[in-house]
Amino acid sequence: MTVRFLRNKVVEVEPLPDGSLEVLWRLTDDLLKAEIILKVQPPDLEIVQAGAKLERLVPEAWQSAPELIKKVEGVRIGSGLRKIVQGLLGGENGCALLVHAVLECSNAVILNFTRPGVQMLEGLTDEEKLSLTREMLKTNPRLIRSCVAFQDDSPIMQGLEL
Amino acid sequence: MITLNRSHVISAEFPDNETVRFNGIQDDHIYSMEITMDVRIADGEILAIDGKMKRYTNFVCPRAELILQSAVGVSLRKEGWDRLVMKEIGRKGCEHFAEIIIECGHCLDQARLSKALWQALEKDPAADQQAFVQNWINEHPENQLG
Hints:
Strand content of chain A: 15-25%
Structural class of chain A: alpha+beta
Strand order of the largest sheet of chain A: 1-2-3-4
Helix content of chain B: 25-40%
Oligomer: heterodimer
Largest sheet of chain B: 4 strands, antiparallel
């Protein structure tokens, strides 16, 4: 059976020589073509620059996206981000696509910093991985019950009193 | 160089007039997983779901495949559906599975609109596509596009 709709989305993180991160988010599907670029400045992960371009069959309500996205300049990627971005870019006069794009860009920035730690585990034995994961849970208690691996009945949690 | 790349590919087919079947793939440097789910068009209810973890970070992660079944019955039209999916599938199972379901949900109206536009162009190849899109959005107040 042929598909009647196909969406491709990609988000990329590229560290720049000045220490900032460029996050490029692109979407293409049967109806829309969109591109969002954010420049994020460590260490506080402030969005210092934001741009958006929407093409093809853009709903009227979303046509102000290039101006609207400027509202996230100055926002920091951190706690409360979902609510802040929804407040700035969402709602009746907002653009849901931009809300999703900015949150996905922000998630990609976090994953970018997560990747080296995940790769570091690869050379370890299963016992060493388990031990390090348990240590990580002690120092990051917000991870407890955040997914199936860290639920109370998970083998990882056995013996931990957290 | 690019140090993190994440892709989503979402496709929608219409096995009958009442149902849309999504296939969603998430692939990045760390994770790779896939979801197939059937959704009733009339009310956005998830009728069936199946998922496969292909790349993940620890040996417990594949247990999340079973948790996916709690998405059956969730309506992609109900206020706060995305938060519900993140809570029930994401936090109890895997947030990456939840992200794929949410992306499929975001494509529900786009898929319906795309199908309708295709059918309109079959009848009239010169139809004003921008006007068609806007009319469709205006005539379907349940849509989440605007």
